[in-house]
């Protein structure tokens, strides 16, 4: 079963997270299907713009903490190499790939956009948020310094990034717009319509011009050190895993479902 809906409409690829009963929580299958659809849209010459959206009330509650991905285990045991490798590919790696797809991309976001959901929207070129959206990265609560694609500083600026992380406070759509993280805030019932209008407008532009404009901006960020900073922050993130396991019992690297205690720590994230 795929947790991703995919269709192409007027040169726009619509990639929809489709696990609404779980608030589009990201398990291994959802992430792998999402990446496959990104790559399909990238290869399709008829696709000029990519829109990432979600069915249901919430864009995504982040990582699915009720399961541990099989890739964390090697020969039935969790190893640092297997777990680090899986997260490198599925979290930081997928986000980097999506960011560098040479076609404009737009994230259309509503409701909750929490922790691992930021790994999905921040690689997109533009973000359109419904007015009921909030953004949150509350993982400092259980001893981790932020999600894997640690673009907080680039998206919000240093001081707002620190406040978001230090307090675990929810950032409203209006606040995200003021910080420059979000391009547009629209009424919830107009989110899909206004996002598609923007996508169709962009799709009228020359494809090579769009690709080179995107590459120029991304390379400027890279020259400023964005990619090196993301890798460094990801490695620091792994110190957080060890701290969380020791201090809060968060069983990231153990098989089986989470305990009720641990789910309570994460239920608002």
TrEMBL record:
Pfam families the UniProt entry points to: ECH_1
Protein name per Swiss-Prot or TrEMBL: Enoyl-CoA hydratase
Record CDD domains: crotonase-like (cd06558)
PANTHER family according to UniProt: ENOYL-COA HYDRATASE, IP11341P-RELATED
Family: Belongs to the enoyl-CoA hydratase/isomerase family.
InterPro entries noted in UniProt: ClpP/crotonase-like_dom_sf, Enoyl-CoA_hydra/iso
